[in-house]
Amino acid sequence: MTGTATPIGAAAGAGRATAVDAGPPGDHAAAAGDGRSPSLSRSIYATVRERIILGQYPQGSRLPEARIGEELHVSRVPLREAVPLLERDGFVHTFPRRGAVVASWDGKAIDDLFDVRLALEVGAARHAARRAALGRSLDPLDAALAASQRAVTAGDAYGIACASTAYHEAVVAVAANDLLLRMMRTISGRITWLFYLSSGLPADDALTEHVALRDAIASGNERLAESVAYAHIEHDRRPTFAAMGMAADVVRP
């Protein structure tokens, strides 16, 4: 490829696309269209998001519009419509005259995500236990656990990260609070990203803890579900810093 690629997002200021939820990430070439289809922008979003998670677009690098457009066989318009979705979910930052730049993880970003997860998921576990006591099905949790087991057995690091995130989303879904679920979905992509970056952590341990959380929710004991959820999330904070090579003094005591 020759020439200088135009950075994505350089012209994505005033006319930003409406935020929409993306489907499961999939690294596939989006079909060419008229450049204004929301589904096309969503497909581009999912593909670029996956590539960012996998490190194909490194942290701190610019997203080159020409390269991505050629790879996905799409025009600039749907690419630029996908940028606000990526920025909304914390995968890129846009800057005047620089365009979109892949977000970078530092100690504060990791801590912030763990803190938000504690604030959201611990309460969701409590509500899920309450719903379970009233007879709500735990099929979403069981299906997510089965998917996690398959990914662990296959040794697929990205699959494990996606399945783990899906499990945590399932806990929130069982809580039956639409607002909580929408909030969870705004951070689920970054959860998957951080899970993948710290994929050196023992997957079997996480799966065992997921089973324990499922059982706590099934018991209908709200305090137990809260306690198990908190311990599970907090248990990974320090190991995540270590897995990413962060200095220990970045971690809160």
Automatic annotation (TrEMBL):
<keyword id="KW-0238">DNA-binding</keyword>
<protein>
    <submittedName>
        <fullName>GntR family transcriptional regulator</fullName>
    </submittedName>
</protein>
<dbReference type="InterPro" id="IPR036388">
    <property type="entry name" value="WH-like_DNA-bd_sf"/>
</dbReference>
<dbReference type="Pfam" id="PF07729">
    <property type="entry name" value="FCD"/>
</dbReference>
<feature type="domain" description="HTH gntR-type">
    <location>
        <begin position="38"/>
        <end position="105"/>
    </location>
</feature>
<keyword id="KW-0804">Transcription</keyword>
<dbReference type="GO" id="GO:0003700">
    <property type="term" value="F:DNA-binding transcription factor activity"/>
</dbReference>
<dbReference type="InterPro" id="IPR000524">
    <property type="entry name" value="Tscrpt_reg_HTH_GntR"/>
</dbReference>
<dbReference type="InterPro" id="IPR036390">
    <property type="entry name" value="WH_DNA-bd_sf"/>
</dbReference>
<keyword id="KW-0805">Transcription regulation</keyword>
<feature type="region of interest" description="Disordered">
    <location>
        <begin position="1"/>
        <end position="39"/>
    </location>
</feature>
<dbReference type="InterPro" id="IPR008920">
    <property type="entry name" value="TF_FadR/GntR_C"/>
</dbReference>
<dbReference type="Pfam" id="PF00392">
    <property type="entry name" value="GntR"/>
</dbReference>
<feature type="compositionally biased region" description="Low complexity">
    <location>
        <begin position="1"/>
        <end position="35"/>
    </location>
</feature>
<dbReference type="InterPro" id="IPR011711">
    <property type="entry name" value="GntR_C"/>
</dbReference>
<dbReference type="GO" id="GO:0003677">
    <property type="term" value="F:DNA binding"/>
</dbReference>
